[in-house]
Design goal:
single chain; about 500 residues; mainly alpha
Length: about 500
């Protein structure tokens, strides 16, 4: 009986991961398509203007994040009054955030000498107001690993954002298209929570202490993390100019969309899965390292590969006026790809209730990152900012996260790195092959040349990486920790479902 529960958890986690990754793939594809189409219609300054408002919203949202959904997942004895309290706290927070956004819009308009920021911030203020009014029952889908419903609803949100943003951009050629798309996604999202998990609002704060005791350190961690990751946006917007900042922001968003799509949403699957294994350290460590190896095997080549195809990709999709985006992707994408190995660490800390450790990590990273980024941006402009992000995001983030994981699991930095060695070697082989291919490529002057180079690079790079990874797995004894066993399990499961109807009909 002791062995069936973990197997059931593993099977359910695999199914949940499939659904969520399907939703993530569609969402990232829709987001990327929206960015590409809008980049063809709008100008970099439009993206820079809305990015300033979005940065403000992200910071205010993170500063006040109560992590109520995570608290409801964490507690096993959730009662009706807990859901009502979560709704009440979320509603209060949403109203306060909307007011703060509207007031801050006037401040930003004065600081950047651009009155359009008043309207942008007022428009974006509707998003936190709506998100705070969602059905609290909707979190039960995540708690029970029923991510099929979550993935479908999020796909609908992305579709609404894409259609509205592109439609309004086509009609108005205005930055308001980006704001309208974001609002359409929020309206669709809140509607879906009530359709899927009907709820009659009740206002009470009876369980506020129970919920906030878990989330207080999560909130503080969100605060220091977002400040550390986003503070440079405000400075870059002023020092680089709105247009250059817009191109920088688009390049950064594309790098994040493509590389980090492999792990960010899966944290939502890993948290409840790790929580169910929290009482068994051996199985928890094994599950953590499997997730490390599998996610890194996907994210790392995506980051490095994206950097190598940045020039033809941007030329073909965004156009020649987005040269700054190429440079940003080439610097940032490999760093984001390498950070994938630490993707499951947040979920691990949540599962163990070690949220204070996350806050301590955030403080350390903030302490190092701020002076490095400030110095780089002030003395060397855009190039200095990018180099500073490579140092802070590549070296310092790695060291700090290695020791965070060791404090939670006892796994040494070497053991954490070792499970990813096949990905490192395969990635090196891919880079060598693609650099060799570049010697035979023509300069990019037309869309045809860009498309040809993009296809050749993706096909060759993907083939070299996948073949090298599989070959190293076989040569090293077919380890059960890595992405290969998970692919075989998924394939076997899919094949089994395909064969069952056939056997019944015979």
């Amino acid at each position: 009986m002791m062995t069936t529960a973990p197997k059931q958890i593993g099977a359910k986690t695999l199914q949940a991961s499939f659904w969520l990754m399907s939703g993530v793939f569609y969402g990232r594809l829709a987001n990327l398509a929206m960015t590409i189409i809008l980049a063809r219609i709008l100008v970099p300054a439009d993206f820079g203007l809305v990015a300033l408002g979005t940065t403000l919203l992200v910071i205010l949202t993170s500063v006040t994040d109560l992590s109520l959904a995570n608290a409801l997942i964490h507690h096993q004895d959730v009662k009706e009054e807990d859901f009502h309290t979560a709704f009440t706290l979320g509603a209060i927070r949403g109203v306060l955030l909307a007011i703060a956004m509207i007031i801050s819009g006037f401040v930003m308009a004065h600081l950047y000498n651009d009155p359009r920021l008043i309207g942008v911030c007022a428009g974006l203020s509707v998003r936190p107001l709506l998100s705070g009014l969602g059905s609290p029952y909707y979190v039960t889908f995540s708690k029970e690993l029923e991510f099929g419903t979550v993935a479908k609803n999020e796909a609908l949100n992305y579709t609404a954002q894409l259609v509205v943003a592109v439609g309004i951009a086509w009609l108005t050629k205005s930055y308001w298209a980006i704001v309208a798309g974001a609002l359409a996604a929020s309206i669709t999202a809140i509607s879906a929570t009530y359709i899927r998990a009907p709820y009659i609002p009740h206002f009470t704060l009876v369980s506020w202490r129970k919920l906030t005791n878990f989330s207080v350190w999560v909130t503080l961690n969100q605060f220091v993390t977002i400040i550390g990751n986003r503070f440079d946006n405000f400075l870059a917007g002023g020092m680089l100019g709105i247009a250059s900042f817009g191109a920088y922001n688009v390049g950064n968003n594309i790098a994040a969309m493509i590389t980090q799509s492999a792990f960010q949403p899966l944290e939502r699957v890993l948290f409840p899965s790790f929580a169910k294994l929290a009482g068994n350290k051996t199985r928890l460590n094994e599950a953590f390292q499997k997730s490390q190896a599998s996610l890194f095997a996907v994210g790392f080549p995506m980051g490095v590969g994206l950097a190598l195809v940045a020039e033809p990709f941007v030329y073909l999709t965004l156009g020649p006026k987005w040269g700054i985006a190429v440079t940003v992707i080439q610097f940032i994408a490999p760093v984001l790809g390498m950070q994938i190995v630490f993707g499951p660490s947040n979920a691990l800390a949540y599962a163990l209730g070690a949220t204070r450790n996350l806050f301590n990590r955030g403080i350390v990273l903030l302490t190092f990152r701020v002076p490095i980024v400030l110095a780089g941006l002030y003395f060397f402009g855009l190039t200095g900012l990018l180099v500073a992000r490579v140092i802070s995001g590549g070296v310092i983030v790695s060291v700090v996260n290695f020791y965070l994981v060791r404090s939670l699991t006892g796994l040494s930095p070497w053991r954490q790195l070792f499970v990813t060695w096949r990905s490192w070697v395969s990635g090196g082989a891919m880079v060598i092959a693609l650099l060799a291919l570049r010697n035979f490529s023509d300069p990019i002057t037309t869309n045809f040349i860009a498309a040809k180079m993009l296809i050749e690079t993706v096909v060759l790079g993907g083939s070299v990486y996948c073949c090298s990874h599989a070959l190293l797995w076989v040569m090293s004894g077919r380890s059960q920790i890595g992405i290969e066993p998970e692919i075989l399990k998924a394939g076997s499961s899919a094949l089994g479902r395909f064969k069952k109807p056939h056997h019944r009909s015979v």
